[in-house]
Amino acid sequence: MAKQAIWKDIAERITRDIAKGHHKAGEKLPTEVAYGTRFGVNRHTVRHAISALVEEGLVYTRRGAGAFVAADPVRYSVGKRVRFHQSVAEAGHQGSKELLSMTTRPADAEEARALGRRKGVQVHVVEGLARVDETPVAHFISVFPAARFPDLLAHLQTLNSITAAFAACGVQDYTRQETRLAAVNANATSATLLNLKVGTALLRSTNVDVDLDGQPVEYGRTWFSGNHIELTIDGSDTNI
Amino acid sequence: MAKQAIWKDIAERITRDIAKGHHKAGEKLPTEVAYGTRFGVNRHTVRHAISALVEEGLVYTRRGAGAFVAADPVRYSVGKRVRFHQSVAEAGHQGSKELLSMTTRPADAEEARALGRRKGVQVHVVEGLARVDETPVAHFISVFPAARFPDLLAHLQTLNSITAAFAACGVQDYTRQETRLAAVNANATSATLLNLKVGTALLRSTNVDVDLDGQPVEYGRTWFSGNHIELTIDGSDTNI
DNA sequence: CTCCATTTGTGCGTATGTATT
DNA sequence: GAATACATACGCACAAATGGA
């Protein structure tokens, strides 16, 4: 072993163990005391090593619970046709969506504007949670014009897929008209749903989807957990 | 004072002292023992606070010498009008870039990886601030391989434009290989530069630019103020 | 639900090493 | 070389959060 600080040796050792697959993403690492016993060092020395790994982003800790291997952020491509499942699947993860609520109510000003309707028209509102490998990574609210899709919610109940429900309502295909991205601090609702602390940075995506005739069919807002999701934009067509 | 760890209080206190100008760039801070006496805490508690400031980049330490203020409060302006981010300028506002500092130092692991170099190779680092209508909206750090562009910084001083400086270094054209977006909470450095509170959500863009041969020429990170910037991606322009 | 063992977070005290001045 | 100052390491104690009985 190179002549250097013990805590660096331990940090490298743990890094190698993770790289070798001895500890997989999300798994709990041995406790500080266990490492201290194994390496014959003080708990503080182990803490120094682990805190360096936390700083690197390789590990995260939860007081009272332990230290865990951090999952690589899932790279979620932004584009015309890419859907959530497809994106996470490409990244080699298991994606799932849970619908939390479905309601029908009058549209507020912004929702109406985005959908090209008048304020107060009835809209279906679907709220849900997206998970990757069981970890909640995004919270979304989608708004649909109720007049055009009277049976959308019924179809959603059974199909559990917006794309499939659209198909059942006669929309064979739809595309992303526009995506707007902003960073916001998590409020109590989002923080609870995403299992984060209030104030954590979230990536908010606002989008309008249109059918093949260019008619708006969905106005959606999604709050991505900045810790778990990284949006990627491919190529030179954007200059950010 | 908020109910929080003592070391955090001390870190914030020192940060404020630096911000107020009590300690200027390059100046030596009081010793750990002196801080410990002043605040009535153990030297280790002071060390914890200072190590957090080192991590933020606000302070650096030299064993045997002391702790010093790292940030340069005297920001010398190199350029006025330079090419600005397209996504900002197209909104019809007045954009400007200010170069805050230029340095050459060894690359860290991530910078080296992004540029396809080995860790520790010399890189030019340019840090700057982008404004829209005089309001700071983005903070950026660009990293270039020094071996390939030995005279880049000199050209930047006179040309005030990265594109022009590249041209002077023999790079006729370059393209955006990839853009990754994430949401992060502002640290002390970004918060100060962007005139925001620590913890405010920022949109972080990470990109790698390559020359026509596909060789990485620039690794850049930009922190956009979430309050002032909303990135838009036109669906018809992205083909993924 | 409470209770309790576990685990990380914070803080203090001490000692020694190593680089700077 | 001597004094100073940061770096590393050990030990002890308690706080705070977790998670299971």
From TrEMBL, chains A, B:
Superkingdom, taxonomy of origin: Bacteria
- Which ranges of the sequence are coiled-coil? none
Q: Which InterPro entries match?
A: Bact_HTH_transcr_reg, Chorismate_lyase_/UTRA_dom_sf, CP_lyase_PhnF, Tscrpt_reg_HTH_GntR, UTRA, WH-like_DNA-bd_sf, WH_DNA-bd_sf
Instruction: Tell me the ranges covered by the HTH gntR-type domain, including all copies.
Output: 4-72
Q: Which UniProt keywords apply?
A: DNA-binding, Transcription, Transcription regulation
A biological process (GO) of this protein is: negative regulation of DNA-templated transcription
Name the PROSITE patterns on file. HTH_GNTR
According to the UniProt entry, its GO molecular function terms are: DNA binding; DNA-binding transcription factor activity
**UniProt-listed NCBIfam families:** C_P_lyase_phnF (TIGR02325)
Q: Can you say what this protein is called?
A: Phosphonate metabolism transcriptional regulator PhnF
Classification from the root reads: Bacteria, Pseudomonadati, Pseudomonadota, Alphaproteobacteria, Rhodobacterales
